[in-house]
Amino acid sequence: xxxxxxxxxxxxxxxxxxxxxxxxxxxxxxxxxxxxxxxxxxxxxxxxxxxxxxxxxxxxxxxxxxxxxxxxxxxxxxxxxxxxxxxxxxxxxxxxxxxxxxxxxxxxxxx
Amino acid sequence: xxxxxxxxxxxxxxxxxxxxxxxxxxxxxxxxxxxxxxxxxxxxxxxxxxxxxxxxxxxxxxxxxxxxxxxxxxxxxxxxxxxxxxxxxxxxxxxxxxxxxxxxxxxxxxxxxxxxxxxxxxxxxxxxxxxxxxxxxxxxxxxxxxxxxxxxxxxxxxxxxxxxxxxxxxxxxxxxxxxx
Lengths: 111, 180
Hints:
The complex is a heterodimer of chains A (about 110) and B (about 180). Chain A has helices spanning about 10-20, 25-30, 45-50, 70-90, and strands at about 1-5, 30, 55-60, 95-100, 100-105. Chain A is of the alpha/beta class and about 110 residues long.
């Protein structure tokens, strides 16, 4: 599994299409994205295990701002961060996309 | 040579950008300032940045809007700070390009590149704090992110500055090691 992370609107899905050699409208067949929004619905461990079955998993970094005042938002953000760590552990390759540019955090990029 | 520098608030990106600009080979250095002085806080911020630039040989050119209309007297090093102001000005100032802000700013950068020997462009990293924003904020973030991605594709060098330290995601650090 390839885990792609990065800030909001950084070009993560474009990058996934590039490495998969697919069009944007075909991406849903190979990849799942915005998984940070699923965090909090079940335990991060269970979720990571299920998501790891996808060839490509994409999450947006959401932990960079001020701690949210709202308890639910705070818990969801924690779960999103935890989920990202668990996905990165399970991934063969971890890439962070920043301004459209990929930075390899773990493993190797497919040729 | 075109270098894009991205960093969060108070990350040291301005100071780093100035160091690069000072080390660049051209004799003349232009600082393109984009901030509109709305109140006391921005006036203080502008004063702090002016003091930081004092003695570094920059000629300051104010350009909060219409970058494409800017004429520089000579080809030199240009430090433009910062894209996030320019984007907000063009998008939301009544005199700005409005919905054409993206194209207008790219056109401006394109014209600027033809008028300088070296361009150092500073932009903001504001994209890691979630996506729950009110009003126009998400639209603005989308605009700035699109500009960042497009300009990162154009640039020879792209780095992110954190705690005053630059990490290059594309190209390499220019100028600073040329004279060693």
